[in-house]
Amino acid sequence: MNDYQESSSPVSDSSLFIKMVVSNWELQNTRVNGLLEKLTDEQLYANVAPGRNRGIYLLGHLTAVSDGMLPLFGLGDKLYPEMESDFLRNPDSTEKEYPSVEELRSRWNQVNARLSAHFESIEPSEWFQKHASISAEDFAKEPHRNKLNILINRTIHQSYHLGQLIFLK
Amino acid sequence: MNDYQESSSPVSDSSLFIKMVVSNWELQNTRVNGLLEKLTDEQLYANVAPGRNRGIYLLGHLTAVSDGMLPLFGLGDKLYPEMESDFLRNPDSTEKEYPSVEELRSRWNQVNARLSAHFESIEPSEWFQKHASISAEDFAKEPHRNKLNILINRTIHQSYHLGQLIFLK
């Protein structure tokens, strides 16, 4: 690690990486929340573009994906495991009875509050440990597939759908 | 850094973190390229949704944003500084004469080839140095605003617009 100490920049360390990743995650959440505040429930029942997913589906999808981080990070079971079928395994369907937009807004906030509380208290070393879906053998070969990498990936995923949800404005 | 060495996970280091960020960037590029290969030039002249940006504008926008990383990373001037006005400072307009989709595809590839070549050869310590748009004073206070953070941010931005470009399929 000598090259870091010799460079003119401040010495980099794991806390710095974590801060970079968590602050980008929080920024995306802030953007999604800002949009959700502006959108009425009626707007969220509309398709983001003709023939494309409805806002309600994307809100459920983002909530289910974030909820999935709880077991991946070893934080216990999903809060809403029943959402997996509707919002992860199956496409949007007007034939299905989804939870109301009001209920989904509440679940979105619950899941994010749980994640945020964890991100504030997690020990730095934990971020670099394997997540629950990779075997110890694979992780030994691919140590970049750690918890922090999951959060980078989920941040990018959230941005993808935010780019679509913004069309509801 | 003792807590890392004591943990059961492999010792984390800066190279690992760089690999996480660069591979997420490359994954996004691969996804955009995969979509661009499938879309005809005609499809890219269409609006991604009614009243929203056209594919040609978003392709120019993503190219101009990536081109902007060259001076930020100290790699010399932008390859296409003239794109800034059309694709960064101003919204999509059918009144304007943009470069052809064919030309934009070529520029997109040029810029990405230049960035990729750099990412392969860059010294790890360079990633943690300040980028060209932050003052030394601010960087001393906010060392997470380094080059690697720019790449995380640009990866998230690219995903946002990929979520829109996909509607052209």
In N-to-C order, the SSE pattern of chain A is HHHHHHHHHH
Please tell me how large the radius of gyration of chain A is: 18 Å
Q: Show unreliable segments of chain A.
A: 1-12
Bin the helical content of chain A.
55-70%
Based on Cα principal axes, name the global outline of chain A: globular
Number of strands of chain A: 0
What multimeric state do the chains show?
A: homodimer
Write the topology of this structure.
2 copies of one chain form a homodimer.
Chain A: H1 2-6, H2 14-38, H3 41-44, H4 55-67, H5 69-72, H6 83-89, H7 101-121, H8 124-127, H9 136-141, H10 147-165
Helix pairs in contact in A: 2-7, 2-10, 4-6, 4-7, 4-10
Q: Could you give a quick summary of the protein structure above?
A:
The structure is a homodimer of 169-residue chains. Chain A is an all-alpha fold and 169 residues long.
Write a concise keyword list for the protein shown above.
169 residues, homodimer, globular, 10 helices, 64% helix
